Amino acid sequence: MDRTGSRYVVSVAGETHDVVVGVDGRVLIDGAGHECSLSGPGPTRMRALILDGKPWAVYAEARAGGLWEFDLGGDRVSAEVLDARTARVRALSADTGSERGATALKAPMPGLIVQVAVETGEIVEPGAAVVIVEAMKMENELRATAAARVERILVAPGEAVEKGQILVEFGEAKRL
Known about the structure:
By secondary structure, this protein is mainly β. The chain has one helix and 17 strands. A hairpin with a 2-residue loop joins β5 and β6.
């Protein structure tokens, strides 16, 4: 595998996969090598994918926050595709409690709060933007890792935070 490839974390159907796309047309999915080529989108945004010699007609539509909708030969599939850095930031910022889902959102690094995108009492879905933190001249959108209710917001825009500081506390999402 060409070491100049790009690494992604792809979540689909409840499973998470490590994907490395090499510039040489090789793809590693969870460490297993595959031959791959993908055509540019045509007028209908349809692409031709050839994976290990098998052709697929693929329609891909990007949504916000790394979410994608794919149509693979008539089957509709949703996936979240994150670059390796974004996946690391998300993992560092999440504090998950057993089966209850996320209990707190922590600062993955020192930074400055740019925006708080939720309100106390709000129910958030997995992947929903919660807080934007600026660190090292980059904005990092921290997202909910599970469905939850916002219990307490412990920061405000303009506030400096330290690595590991709790930004938002969550409770169980109770639906009516």
